[in-house]
Amino acid sequence: MPYLAVMTVDLQAQVLARFVAINGDHPMTPADDKYVNSQFVPLTDLPVDADQIRADMLASRLPMPSYVRSDGVEMVPADLLALAERAGGVHDLPEWFRAQGWPDAATAEDEWRGYLSGRYVCLKSVTPTTMQRKDSLMTAIGDAKRDPRPDSPEWRSTLHALVDELDALEPTFTAYDRLRFGGPVSRDTHIDDVRAAYPRSL
Fold first, then answer.
1. How many angstroms separate the CA atoms of 46 and 53, rounded?
2. Which of 63, 95, 101, 183 has a Cα-to-Cα distance from 126 of 20 to 30 A?
3. Quick count: other Cβ atoms within 10 Å of Cβ 45?
4. Which helix (DSSP H) or strand (DSSP E) does residue 74 occupy?
5. Distance between CA atoms of 36 and 72, rounded to whole angstroms?
6. Is 36 in contact with 69 (CB distance < 8 Å)?
7. Pairwise CA distance, residues 105 & 109, whole Å
8. What does the pLDDT look like over 98-153, one tens digit per residue?
9. Are the C-beta atoms of residues 53 and 43 closer than 8 Å to each other?
């Protein structure tokens, strides 16, 4: 086997092994594959050498794949490289990311690790801005759920405005996500369940 082919197999195997270590070993169904195909692209479709991307993933310079299809193909956001480009390159990305308005250094580090995991599939576009806005919306919706005032039109209107904004940020998810996250996802708990419990009109 040629050297480059050996390197590709080795790096891909390492990426897949780390993916399973992060997400658990859960089967992807045809429905999961169909969802992923509609939302993500194969890593090999990106305009950078696939093995360089894999090496950067393994070196904690780029996020891991968001999904691995049932045929073993690593699936990533089409804009996987966009933040690195904004930062000036993958080597500058960690410092740039940590400087993007996080409340403190510990939060910045936690969010960086979360970003690198590839598990931020709860956002259509993963940036520090959308990550922070999602957190704010989740907190506000959670606060409203803990102090419900369903007879108040103002409370109901405010709640639905928050839910609608979160809805615009999040994709629909797939059954695989509920397996790897061990239960309901944020769309279930902070969008669908809220709309069902508190319809827009009484």
1. 9
2. 183
3. 12
4. strand 74-76
5. 13
6. yes
7. 6
8. 999 999 999 999 999 999 999 999 999 999 999 999 999 999 999 999 999 999 99
9. yes
SS3 41: strand
The half-sphere exposure of 185 on its side-chain side, counting CA atoms within 13 A, is 20
Give the dihedral of Cα atoms 60, 34, 50, 117; nearest 10 deg: 0
Question: Among residues 173, 191, 168, which one has the least CA distance to residue 67?
Answer: 173
Q: In one letter, which amino acid is 93?
A: L
